[in-house]
Design a protein that fits this description.
Largest sheet: none
Structural class: mainly alpha
Strand content: under 5%
Number of helices: 21
Number of strands: 0
Distance between the termini: 29 Å
């Protein structure tokens, strides 16, 4: 395809990065919101993340098989339609205020996103010159970061009411007044998610009507990478990388998802203000990727990862020890430090796999299921102790990332083009 003919396809595929980034980063708004509307504990509210991220584990392989059979364009269209259906399910979920239906809606959304994430990275690579593939991927990732910044700001404005009643206040209300309050909270998600569902369906229609090239996935001539026919799991560094990615994604999701609750507990920050602080933190996450990419020109990726992971451990522990806005700002700093972790761990884990690289990449994407598990642990700790104490859990996760980085300080074969996520 010529440059002129690839412009519209590039715009459409880039929009997918924005769409899944926006959907991902509404979850930190939904957690405190549904906690109120559905009267949940912190542990129960963490199932927002579990319902979402378990889809990556359950749907990743079926998505790959579907696209191998029917092609990437069909996979993208199906992913967008499934995404839209999940968004539209928020209407009956809000009307019934049924938490299980909210969870189903989130699972369906994430199932659609799994198709999109599986297809978007290879597609953006073939839409143009191979020499500029990395530039196109970085450009698309920047829209993912933009969405991460906008989602909590927009969600905080149009979903969060800023009104939270504690148990004692709810006990003093008449039954009809309490029901009206809870229903009003639940209804706040209807318009935003109806808009999202409509926009996603429009993008699906545009993809259907736009010519897109199919990707030729011929056998690679890449050497075996030292595995020599043995199981992929015989590579110790890869296994450690899968483990590190599991804990990293769990830490990232937990830190961001409970940020609003954490800010309120340690510094008395109201939910709308905390949502704006979260938007600033995620802006720092996006800036951190650019800063990290620049620093890797002078510092080996594994060494930079080790430094960022060590600082993340220290900042997270500090946020547990101190109170007030200083603790909140420490977690904003952690969000900046997390920015390089997913791509760097991913690259270090698949380096040297040779012909097993594609299989290894699929397994690493499935490790995103950590985002379904670690927040549950944090919610359970919060219910038993405090939300502030629960932030010791991501501190432990960052220790795992630190140990993996230290194992790879002499790794010279880090691939540069890696999948975007979150």
């Amino acid at each position: 395809m010529t440059k002129r003919h690839t412009l519209i396809p590039v715009i459409l595929i880039t929009s997918l990065f924005f769409l899944w980034g926006f959907a991902h980063n509404l979850n930190p708004i939904l957690i405190p919101h549904l906690k109120k509307a559905c009267q949940l504990s912190d542990f129960q509210s963490a199932f927002v993340d579990s319902a979402f991220f378990i889809a990556y584990f359950a749907v990743a392989l079926p998505a790959g098989y579907f696209m191998k059979r029917f092609g990437y364009k069909q996979g993208i269209v199906l992913g967008l339609v499934v995404f839209a259906v999940g968004a539209l399910l928020f209407l009956p979920a809000a009307n019934t205020r049924a938490y299980g239906l909210f969870q189903l809606a989130l699972f369906v959304i994430a199932s659609g996103l799994t198709f999109l994430e599986t297809a978007a990275n290879p597609y953006i690579s073939v839409l143009g010159s191979p020499q500029t593939a990395t530039q196109r991927l970085n450009f698309a990732q920047s829209f993912n970061g933009l969405a991460a910044t906008l989602a909590p700001f927009i969600g905080g404005r149009y979903i969060l009411s800023g009104k939270t009643l504690d148990v004692e206040e709810q006990a003093t209300m008449a039954a009809n007044e309490l029901e009206a309050y809870l229903q009003a909270e639940a209804d706040a998600v209807i318009v935003p998610y109806m808009v999202i569902g409509t926009v996603v369906l429009l993008v699906a229609l545009l993809v259907v009507r736009t010519p897109l090239p199919e990707i030729d996935e011929e056998a690679s001539d890449i050497p075996d990478g030292g595995i020599k026919g043995r199981s992929l799991w015989s590579n110790g560094n890869f296994v450690f990388g899968v483990t590190a990615l599991f804990f990293y994604v769990g830490a990232q999701v937990g830190v961001v998802s409970f940020f609003i609750r954490f800010s309120n507990q340690v510094a008395g920050v109201q939910e709308k203000t905390a949502a704006n602080l979260l938007a600033i933190a995620l802006l720092g996450f996006m800036v951190g990727r650019f800063v990290g990419t620049f620093l890797m020109r002078f510092i080996a990726p594994a060494k930079l990862l080790a430094g960022f992971a060590l600082l993340s451990v220290l900042f997270t522990v500090l946020s547990v020890w101190v109170d007030g806005l200083f603790a909140v700002y420490a977690m904003v700093g952690v969000t900046f430090l997390m920015s390089i972790m997913f791509p760097t761990v991913f690259s270090l884990a698949i380096s040297g796999l040779g012909k097993h690289t594609k299989q290894g990449s699929s397994v690493l994407i499935m490790a995103i299921v950590g985002g379904a598990i670690i927040p549950l642990v944090m919610g359970s700790v919060s219910d038993r102790f405090t939300m502030q104490t629960a932030y010791l859990v991501p501190a432990v996760c960052f220790v795992v990332v630190l140990l993996f980085a230290l194992r790879n300080v002499n790794n010279k074969r880090v691939q540069q083009v890696i999948p975007a996520h979150g």
